[in-house]
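Practice problem 4.
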């Protein structure tokens, strides 16, 4: 199963799984796999394999925005395989909130974009989704807002109103 370029092993994402490798001692036979479906090969210069990585197992995600109605307001673990989908869904909540805010306050969403950030785990070398960022621009057309009123009076003072009239028509 592939989610955002990260592949999993047959849909099994949780718990511990015992494995055995021929010719190893009993301690190695019963060593748990912390991240099932990941490679058991330790890359050069890395402390562990992706299957045994404590950093990936304990990674938590938390929202840093001031919006109170989005997920991950308190830190929560997401498996590396599901992080891409969870982060995209979370950032989608921010986009949805922007559209709701614009609709309630007589505004229009001019632009909404989401960027997904990736990083490399320092322990095992796995590339993982490390977070995301949502950027929105909302234009408000309510004249009671001070910025809009100032912008209109400034346009009038500078002759911008009626400046593009076609007299030939």
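Answer key:
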């Amino acid at each position: 199963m592939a989610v955002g370029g990260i592949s999993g092993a047959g849909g099994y994402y949780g718990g511990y799984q015992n494995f055995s490798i021929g010719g190893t001692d009993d301690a190695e036979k019963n060593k748990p796999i912390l991240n099932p479906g990941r490679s058991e090969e330790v890359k050069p210069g890395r402390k562990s394999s992706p299957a045994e990585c404590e950093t990936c197992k304990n990674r938590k995600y938390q929202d840093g925005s001031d919006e109170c109605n989005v997920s991950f307001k308190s830190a929560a673990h997401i498996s590396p395989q599901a992080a891409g989908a969870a982060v995209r869904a979370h950032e989608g909540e921010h986009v949805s909130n922007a559209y709701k805010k614009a609709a309630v306050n007589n505004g229009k969403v001019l632009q909404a974009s989401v960027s997904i950030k990736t990083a490399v785990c320092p322990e095992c070398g796995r590339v993982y989704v490390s977070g995301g960022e949502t950027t929105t621009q909302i234009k408000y057309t309510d004249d009671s807002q001070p910025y809009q009123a100032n912008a209109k009076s400034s346009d009038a003072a500078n002759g911008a109103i009626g400046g593009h009239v076609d007299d030939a028509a």
